[in-house]
Design a protein that fits this description.
Largest sheet: 8 strands, mixed
Shape: extended
Structural class: alpha/beta
Radius of gyration: 36 Å
Strand content: 5-15%
């Protein structure tokens, strides 16, 4: 091809020149690293050696003696410092009165004695498990006011939420709250979208308005109580956010208003019954017994509800739920269904809120029963859940952990152990003999075994 007239030369660098420059740079860096390494390995001169002084200098002997004395004094001072090193005294960590993020649990009775009004946080997914009758009797004996805070309303169908509201309003005042634990200080001033996506909460303004109107003059201390994993700290954060507070002080009380003080530590109501909320709060423990948990759940759910939420075909309820789940999630070990893997999938879905559940309200609302006020519904309208959830007949889950020796959910336990040992022996043989077997060889050996 003929070169065009007055065509400019290309500014691209040839590969030969580019690789040559890279090679030169590598050699240069290698030389520098070698030089630095050799210079660092040289022994430093000892400081105690006699300094050099020209012979023509006047008073040479006196100068050398003064320098040697100074060096000896420095060495002596270093030795004294080593002998008399300051001792490091470790102070004991005193139990500080922390704010909302307190690690130690405080009993609900202690909060009851310190507070004037109690905010009883109730998980809307399992209301009968969150309401303890013995603690309710203790509150009535103390003659102190209390308010039910129905939390996690975004995880429960709206119809069940209204039915539980009509039951709780018979005992005391109830407020619907969607709480959040995040308290934004600087990020909400930078990007308003972060405030909308991260710190989504609602229902706190109505609760604060009720407290201000009920106790307008006297100094009132507010305590928060509830069972584990019901959202006590999140409710406290939502109250602070509704009052315009972005931080909590390191004190026993936090000022909400001129007359309202919020106790910084929530109280925990301890119970011995095993319910669905206690399983979720100790999920790391129950992950070792997923089969027993799913068996307990199968006794409190209906067959049609399980088929709808797990997308299962027709099966024998409740004995065949685990087998149907293993087929649905394709959890097999060889030709045998892996029940443990299927049970863990169900527990993870419950933990991540992808599988929503609710304890069914048995009592039906009548004409005389109070409904949820429209102003309260308008405040939390954006968080109401209109779908359906897995309905539990009762919150109590019958879980019977099996001893490790008898626990076996995979078929052929002894045969499986022998099979693994044989595969391990074949692998170690290949390592020590230096021979490399292909996957086909191992597969043939596996079939023979």
């Amino acid at each position: 091809m003929v070169k065009a007239f007055n065509k400019k030369e290309s500014k691209r660098m040839t590969c030969h020149k580019k690789y040559k420059i890279r090679r030169k740079v590598r050699e240069h860096n290698r030389k520098l690293a070698k030089k630095i390494k050799s210079s660092s390995n040289k022994k430093k001169k000892n400081a105690t050696n006699a300094p050099n002084c020209p012979n023509t200098a006047p008073f040479k002997e006196d100068i050398l003696l003064d320098i040697l004395k100074q060096q000896e004094n420095l060495v002596a001072e270093k030795k004294l410092r080593k002998k008399h090193q300051p001792k490091i005294v470790m102070k004991e960590n005193k139990p500080s009165t922390t704010s909302i993020v307190s690690q130690k649990k405080v009993s609900a009775n202690a909060i009851l004695s310190k507070s004037d009004v109690l905010l009883w946080v109730v998980d809307a997914r399992s209301v009968p498990e969150s309401v303890d009758e013995s603690f309710l009797a203790t509150i009535k004996e103390s003659e102190k006011k209390f308010v039910f805070v129905l939390n996690k309303i975004d995880l429960v169908p709206c119809s069940e939420l209204k039915s539980w509201y009509t039951q709780l309003i018979k005992i005391g005042p109830v407020f619907l709250v969607k709480s959040t634990q995040i308290i934004l200080s600087q990020s909400e001033q930078i990007i308003p979208a972060v405030k909308q996506t991260i710190a989504r909460h609602g229902g706190g303004k109505g609760l604060i308005g009720y407290l201000k109107s009920s106790f307008p003059e006297a100094l009132t201390r507010i305590g928060v109580v509830g069972k584990d994993q019901v959202g006590k700290k999140c409710v406290m954060s939502t109250l602070l956010k509704a009052c315009g507070r972005t931080k909590t002080k390191q004190a026993t009380e936090t000022k909400l208003n001129e007359n309202l003080r919020l106790l910084s530590s929530p109280g925990t109501i301890e119970t011995e019954t095993i319910g669905i909320l206690s399983v979720l709060s100790n999920l790391s423990r129950y992950m070792n017994y997923p089969v027993e948990v799913v068996k307990g759940l199968s006794e409190v759910i209906e067959k049609e509800d399980a088929m709808h939420h797990f997308t299962l075909p027709d099966y024998n309820h409740p004995e065949g739920l685990l087998a149907a789940l293993a087929t649905r999630y394709n959890t097999f070990f060889g030709s045998n269904p892996d029940y443990e893997a299927a049970g863990r999938i169900v527990l993870k879905r419950l933990r991540d809120h992808t599988l929503k559940f609710v304890v069914k309200c048995t009592t039906k609302a009548t004409r005389t029963s109070k409904c949820v006020p429209q102003s309260m519904l308008d405040e939390v309208e954006a968080f109401l859940f209109e779908g359906d959830a897995l309905t539990l007949a009762t919150y109590q889950v019958d879980i019977q952990p099996v001893t490790p020796g008898k626990h076996s959910t995979r078929g052929g336990g002894t045969l499986y152990t022998v099979h693994c040992m044989c595969i391990y022996i074949v692998y170690m043989y290949t390592v020590y003999t230096g021979m490399m077997y292909t996957t086909d060889t191992l597969y043939v050996g596996k079939r023979i075994l």
